[in-house]
Amino acid sequence: MHEQHVFSARDLPYGTQLIPLAAIFVELGKEAHNVHVRDQIARWYWCGVLGELYGGATETRIARDVVEVVEWIRGGAEPTTVRDAHFAADRLFTLRTRNSAAYKGLHALLMREGARDFLSGVPIDIQTYYGESIDIHHIRRVDYPIKSKGYRKKSTFPVECE
Predict the structure, then answer these.
(1) Of 12, 34, 52, 100, which shows the fewest CB atoms inside 10 Å?
(2) 160 in Cβ contact with 140 (< 8 Å)
(3) Is there a contact between 101 and 108 (Cβ–Cβ < 8 Å)?
(4) Rounded Cα–Cα distance for residues 29 and 74 (Å)
(5) Whole-structure pTM value
(6) What are phi and psi of 62, to 5 degrees?
(7) Going by C-beta distance under 8 Å and a sequence separation of 6 or more, which residues neighbour residue 146?
(8) Which residues pair with 141 in a beta bridge?
(9) In angstroms, rounded to a whole number, what is the distance separating the alpha carbons of residues 122 and 116?
(10) Is 136 within 8 Å of 103 (Cβ atoms)?
C-alpha cells in the first residue's frame, strides 16, 4: 500500500479490498514483481476505491475480483471492477469527511502525485508523512485561506498540505 501512498490503516479506503489484493499477490507469486503487473493491480485497486465498489456487500465482488484480476494480468479481459468503476466529477463537491473511501483515496492519490508539505514544500513520502504527522485533513486547495494561522499565503503548488 505504501506504493500507493496509503501509509496508515486509518487512511485505508476499504479494508475489505485488502482480502482480494492479498489473494491476487499470492496467486501471482513472482509475477507480481513486474512493473506492468503492478500497474494493472494499481488500476484495479483505484477503480474499486474511486468507484466506491467495496462499500456494500462484497463477498461476490471479492471472489470475482481474485479470479478476474489474475486472468486479466495473464492476458484475459478487464475485470468487472475496472469496467464498472465510475467516478462522477460532481462527487468532489460532496466529499466532506475522512470516512468516505473516495475522500481517503483522493488524499492518497494527491500525495502519490506530488502533493507537498505546506511549510517545507517537500513532497510527501513516508518519511514526511510520519515525521510531520500529516493527516488527511491537511490537504487543501491552494486558494483556500489559512485563517486558523492568522495569515494568508499565496502558493506556487496546485495542492498543498498544512
Answers:
(1) 34
(2) yes
(3) no
(4) 13
(5) 0.72
(6) -60, -50
(7) 152, 153, 162
(8) 159
(9) 5
(10) yes
